[in-house]
Amino acid sequence: MPPQHGHRRARIAFSDAAAKQLENITSEAEIHALDRALVVISVDPEAGEPIPGDTKGPQLRQYTDEVESVRVLYFVTALRTVVVVAYIEV
């Protein structure tokens, strides 16, 4: 019997703007909160809610974790394997 593999996680990539935001996060609690949100998105890229807008490009999504006070705006690529984070609010 072949080994059973779990669902593959999406790879997270950051836009230049999001990377600059990451540089400004210094609190260990904020880093932990963001890590938790990114794990959720990597496991289930559809976890966030679609943001209404232009349908020409990829669908912008918003994931909000009220407990950790984290909001991440992102989109999923056509291959659905890479989540690009567009904005981070911790």
In short:
With 90 residues, the chain is α+β, with helices and mostly antiparallel strands.
Keywords:
single chain, 90 residues, 27% helix, 30% strand, globular
Q: How many DSSP H or I helices?
A: 2
Order of helices and strands: EHHEEEE
End-to-end Cα distance = 45 Å
User: Helix share of residues?
Assistant: 25-40%
How much strand content do the residues show? 25-35%
Q: What integer value in Å does the Rg equal?
A: 14 Å
**Poorly predicted parts:** none
Largest sheet: 5 strands, mixed
How does the helix and strand content classify structurally?
alpha+beta
Oligomeric grouping of the chains: single chain
Largest sheet strand order: 1-5-4-3-2
| Strand segment count | 5
Shape: globular
